[in-house]
Design brief:
Helices cover 45% and strands 17% of the residues. The protein is built from twelve helices and ten strands. Strands 1-4-5-6-7-8-9-10 form an eight-stranded parallel beta barrel, surrounded by six helices. Helix 4 packs across helix 5.
Length: 265
């Protein structure tokens, strides 16, 4: 499977980085650390609280589309602020080269707060799933556009074995079909076009009805206002992953609090 553009560059770099880390720390060692990491917090359950506006609040320092976002805030301080503001879960970027992330950020954020944490990265190897659990993560991201059907199925099974949930990200109807065929139980619809980097909420709105009942529906990217959340909730979304809008704010926790307050019916 050929992955092109920015995603292709990130995926190729991820493969090199994973191979390097595996040389330093074999899979068997990481699996032992994962087994010793303590109880898992249910990411899936956190996204399904009835009557709540379930936001996955993201910590990230930079991105290919925005460049530098924030480097002056620690993951633990942001995690605590998000939790106090009412976040359902955390998303922590751990990709180093393009997003300025680290597994240490995941460990710090998850250790500071009491809500589940997603390892937001580009999963190209089952090794990363065990790394996520060893670092304290409760969920991993699987991007359909970056994976073959065989890899997607394998990684979903590996996530189950590692006791973490999997957020399976799609960008269009064919990717959604692939995700569902592989058995995805949490589907995230990313509103960002990976080729143009354009963000359109209509992507989530168009795909909402195609996601079956029983599958947790997450809208990702471009969510900035209470009206955005209300529109997506009306379309059937259970949760909303919000990153740049919060991290670009002077105080991310305060920005989340204001957004949740104004979005309540």
């Amino acid at each position: 499977m050929s992955v092109t553009g920015v995603l292709g560059q990130i995926v190729e770099r991820a493969k090199v980085q994973v191979a390097s880390r595996r040389d330093m720390l074999p899979l068997e060692v990481v699996q032992t650390l994962a087994d010793e990491a303590g109880p898992v917090r249910s990411f899936r359950a956190a996204l399904q609280k009835n009557g709540a506006i379930n936001v996955i609040a993201e910590y990230k320092r930079r991105s290919p589309s925005k460049g530098l976002i924030r480097e002056d805030l620690s993951p633990q301080d942001v995690a605590l602020a998000y939790e106090a503001a009412g976040a359902a879960a955390l998303s922590v970027l751990t990709e180093e080269e393009f997003f300025g992330g680290s597994l240490d950020h995941l460990t710090a954020a998850r250790g500071a707060a009491q809500i589940p944490a997603l390892r937001k990265d580009f999963t190209v190897d089952a090794y990363q799933i065990w790394e996520a659990r060893a670092a304290g993560g409760d969920a991993v991201l699987l991007i359909v556009a970056a994976l073959t059907d065989a890899e997607l199925t394998t990684f979903l099974a590996e996530a189950k074995e590692a006791r973490v949930d999997a957020l399976v990200e799609v960008h269009d109807a064919p990717e959604l079909s692939r995700a569902l065929a592989a058995g995805a139980q949490i589907v995230g619809v990313n509103n960002r076009n990976l080729k143009t980097m354009e963000v359109r909420l209509e992507t989530s709105l168009d795909l909402a009805a195609k996601i079956p009942a029983g599958v947790v529906k997450v809208a990702e990217s471009g969510i900035k206002t209470a009206a955005d959340i209300q529109k997506l909730r009306a379309a059937g979304y259970d949760a909303f992953l919000i990153g740049e809008h919060l991290m670009l704010s002077p105080e991310p926790g305060a920005a989340l609090h204001d957004l949740l307050t104004s979005a309540k019916p």
